[in-house]
Amino acid sequence: MQDDLTKRALDYHMKDGVPGKVTVVPSKPCQTADDLGLAYTPGVAKPVLAIAENPEDAYKYTSKGNLVAVISNGTAILGLGDRGALASKPVMEGKGVLFKRFADIDVFDIELDTKDPDKIIDIVKTLSPTFGGVNLEDIKGPECFRIEQELIKSCNIPIFHDDQHGTAIIATAGLMNSCEIVGKKLEDIKIVVNGAGAAGISCAKMFVAAGVKRENLLMCDSKGVIYKGRTAGMTPEKEEFATDLPARTLAEALVDADVLMGLSVADCVTPEMLLSMAKDPVVFAMSNPNPEIAYELAMETRDDLIMATGRSDYPNQINNVLGFPFIFRGALDVRSVIISEGMKMAAAKALAALAKEPVPASVEKAYGGQKFSFGRNYIVPKPFDPRVIEWEAVAVAKAACEEGLAGKPITDWEGYRKSLVKRMEKYWN
Ligand SMILES: NC(=O)C1=CN([C@@H]2O[C@H](COP(=O)(O)OP(=O)(O)OC[C@H]3O[C@@H](n4cnc5c(N)ncnc54)[C@H](OP(=O)(O)O)[C@@H]3O)[C@@H](O)[C@H]2O)C=CC1
Ligand SMILES: CC(=O)C(=O)O
Ligand SMILES: [Mg+2]
């Protein structure tokens, strides 16, 4: 099975004699000498002068407004760890494909061969005029936190570290719905977040913002539970979640826990750990490509759990693919210079609400005729649901407008929704 995946995945990436997954396509004709004189010299001087006079014109005469930089240094590629900048390129090209396929956003992927946060900040800041937004990807914690914060301060376009916030948004949507399904309240649950890097820290923050009590949240890293007074491997971000409770290992933390959020590495959770959890446990084993506990093993271990992974090939995919394309679509369309906490929560709530709607036949067809309805095996919408853009991008754009963050506010929301449907027709038909 694994060998088959290796072969099929490598073949896919070199299919048709074209290495990789993306290419650049011109959006204007360039067939004649006249076209050449408009696209290039002398005509190109006219938009140059217009933009020099009025920088806003870059949104009129260049691709800036619909172009996102996907930037990595390869220090946390999925759950594969630090494999270097070059090896991160297939993932970054993949993110580009998903931006385009799900939200019609163009991407340049940029792999930076450096681990120096100051250098990354300087490079991204320097190249930011090219882009309408920056999606930081697979840059490990804790450096990722300062890199993102510094860039948010110094750039006038949205900067979004997908592994932090994309993951947190989808996990929060899934958590809200899972709790509803098993009849538990966010403020009552005991939750364990395994992994205290980019994804773990940001998810924990968003769970607390959604109503989870901080004192009911235990966080673990490679050294076990993060507790008050611990000195080894601590960071200010981890300190915020340090517990007073006596648990010191993941196994101890999980006793009677209602929820396990895995944002760490493959196969670090055992059946015994799952068996020690409370009734109707919620287990999101989100490590990619292989989860903290295999889907089949978890389902064999207990029959009362809600199980999710980051993968496409099992029920309940909790993966930031349900976030970044649609969140950037909304943010770019209203020209927001940041992606605020309110915009993120609006995205999570939109996804949670959409999962409760009847699922169109086109989605079931994309998943081999499977039937989906809100419940234990369908807690968030599918990425191939054409309604996700209508719900999520609109919610994000609306939140930006309500918070006064929109440089180009929208007032006709039904018109905007329809324009998104029209824009995406070419991908769905
Ligand atoms: N499904 C999804 O959408 C997403 C999933 N992820 C997954 O989350 C994981 C972490 O990614 P990211 O946060 O970006 O990476 P980081 O490198 O920033 O963080 C990794 C964290 O995992 C911890 N860790 C390593 N081994 C263990 C272990 N055995 N038990 C507990 N914790 C451990 C590290 O501990 P320490 O601090 O001690 O080094 C660190 O805190 C990856 O597997 C990734 O695929 C990430 C983003 C999105
Ligand atoms: C999905 C993703 O971004 C990750 O695993 O890093
Ligand atoms: Mg990632």
Quick structural summary:
It is built from 18 helices and 10 strands.
Give a structural overview.
Residues 19-152 form the Malic enzyme N-terminal domain. A divalent metal cation binds at residues 137-138, 163. One of its GO terms (molecular function) is metal ion binding. The chain has three domains: 63-157, 3-Layer(aba) Sandwich (Rossmann fold), CATH 3.40.50; 165-309, 3-Layer(aba) Sandwich (Rossmann fold), CATH 3.40.50.720; 323-364 and 381-428, no CATH class. It is globular, with a radius of gyration of 22 Å. The model has no long low-confidence stretch (mean pLDDT 97). The chain has helices at residues 2-13, 33-39, 45-53, 58-61, 89-103, 117-127, 143-154, 162-182, 198-210, 236-239, 250-254, 271-275, 295-301, 324-333, 341-354, 361-366, 387-402, 413-428; strands spanning 67-72, 106-111, 133-136, 159-161, 191-194, 217-221, 224-225, 259-262, 282-285, 306-309. Helix content is 44%, strand content 10%. Helix 6 packs parallel to helix 7. The protein contains 18 helices and ten strands. The chain has 429 residues and is of the alpha/beta class. The longest helix is centred in the middle third of the chain and has 21 residues, at 162-182. The strands form two sheets. The chain has a six-stranded mixed β-sheet with strand order 7-6-5-8-9-10, with helices on both faces. A four-stranded parallel β-sheet has the order 2-1-3-4, with helices on both faces. It binds NADPH dihydro-nicotinamide-adenine-dinucleotide phosphate, pyruvic acid and magnesium ion (MG). Magnesium ion (MG) is lined by residues 137-138, 162-163. The site of NADPH dihydro-nicotinamide-adenine-dinucleotide phosphate (NDP) has 30 residues, from helix 8, helix 9 and strand 6.
